[in-house]
Each structure stands twice: as C-alpha cells, then as structure tokens.
Amino acid sequence: MLSLIIPCYNEEGAIEDIVKRCDAVLRDEDEIIVVNDGSTDGTSEILNNMNIERLRVVSHKKNTGNGASIMTGLSNARGEWIATIDADGTYFPEEIPKLYQLALTGDADIVTGLRESLMQGPWLHSRARNFLRRLTEMVAHQKIADVNSGLKIIRKEVIERYRKYIPKRFSPHIVLTICAGRDECVIQYVPIQYGPRIGFSKLSSGIHGPANFIKFILLIFWTWIRKPKKVIKQE
Question: Which residue, 69, 179, 186, 188, is most buried by CB atoms nearer than 10 A?
Fold first, then answer.
C-alpha cells in the first residue's frame, strides 16, 4: 500500500487539481493524506469540499513547516511505502506510478524523481544546485543526482528511522538523502517532468533565495555532524 503525503500551505490555486490528479493515478488500495499546515487562504475550504473517498485531511492550527507537515502525514499513514509530492503544481502526479513500479520491483529504499531540467536551468541557479548536490555527495558518501526533489517514494521503515533528524521548518529531503546515503541505503533516480509553480514562491523569491541557499549549506553540515556514518561489520 502507498500512502501519498501532500504538505500544503496556502495553495488554493493548485491543491484541488493536484489532489484530483493524484486520485486518478493511484491504485484502489492507496491513500492520500493532505496536511493543511495552517493555511490562511481558501485552501481549507477547498479541501473540505472535496469528495474523494481515499482522501484524508489533517490540519495544523498554525503553520509549522514542511518537515513537520510530512512527519504529521507519516504518523497518519497506513502504507508500507510513503510518497511525497508538493502541492504547488511543479510536480506531475502522473509520474507517481512510474516511481512506484520501480520501488515495488527493484531493491531501492528510496526512489527519487530527478528534475533534469533544473540542472540545466539559469546559470546561477544551476551552479548553486550543483554545488549543493556535490556537497551532499561528500557528506552522504554516495552519488546524488537530485538532492532536494519533493517527489519521491520511500520505505516507511526508512523514513521512520530518521524521524529524529528531520527539521520542522525546512524541507526534509536533503536530510533524508544524507541519512540514507550514510547508511548505504539504495537510492534510485527516475527522470521526471518539472514545471513552474502555481502561486507565490515561499522559498526562492527576492532575498529568500540566497538566504535559503545558505540555510541548505548549514543544514547539510548540521546533518553530517548529527548523523554518524553507519559502520558495516565485516563477516
């Protein structure tokens, strides 16, 4: 069973479309968990009016952050596999079956959507992303194709293992990638489509872009210090 977690904060322009498209591509037994993270726009009303049997909405009274929202979703998930997707329209739900099929048939612990178009984007942005990717590779001791993709499928037991390292306010994907890499988990990458977000960017607009770039660097080193590399015993 797959539990799809959608963290959501003020996404009234995209959330209904994303949920409906996710519902259309999932199997009958799978579930959708939207974590409404203290939205102050029309998001709550839209979610309350959606009539989708597999959909469960869990609401925070106030905004707590992306990482905290995904952990709330995890606490409510029934599936042995956890999927995540952003609510802003940048990721295509139609890609989920492709990732899930690889998760079920392969030996991966994590299957990550690879946003190849971002790596070839504007010069400054692509350089910054590749710098973060190479830095993460040094810390994770594993080749990393996409360090912070929000579309991925993870064994529930793996993400539970690293719950204590997950930051509340920030996206958990860098931390998950580093922790899994340091424990020599199998991470596989699948090229996916990636489009412009719907609505206002909460991370990359104005001065937030450079500020968050610095925060990502600090988060990488913070995880490196906190999460020791797993020692593999020789038989």
Answer: 69
